[in-house]
Amino acid sequence: MRSTLTIFVIGFVLGSSLGIGGLWTQVVQPTKAELEKIEQENGIMQKAVETATQALKDAAKDLRADADVTGASVTGPTSVRPTGTSPQPAPVPTLGTSRTRSIADTLDSKAAELEQTRTSMRTVR
Predict the structure, then answer these.
(1) The overall pTM is greater than 0.70
(2) Cys staple from 75: which of 69, 91, 92, 104, with CB 3.0 to 4.6 Å?
(3) 7: buried, middle or exposed (CB in 10 Å: 19+, 13-18, 0-12)?
(4) Are 94 and 74 within 8 A, CB to CB?
């Protein structure tokens, strides 16, 4: 009876140890590695969103600056149109000032949406 109880206790201890070890190697370690990979990808995505947001803001700023410089003019830089004897400049139409500012506003709103997305990505962690 005593040997049976001893064998049972030894079996129980070994079985528990092996069960915990199995859980550790089969579940915990792979899950930890996957979480680290996801966190790394999240960092890359946050950096990409930050870069895109800054690019949109810069583009909007440049558009507004160009609109302020050109004013309400309808023509922009000239292109050269070849004619019989010598090339003649031809006006190239540009966007109107209000249209340029409208595009800049749209870019700013998209940048704000990206910034909000990036902020929500941080809070999920």
Answers:
(1) no
(2) 91
(3) exposed
(4) yes
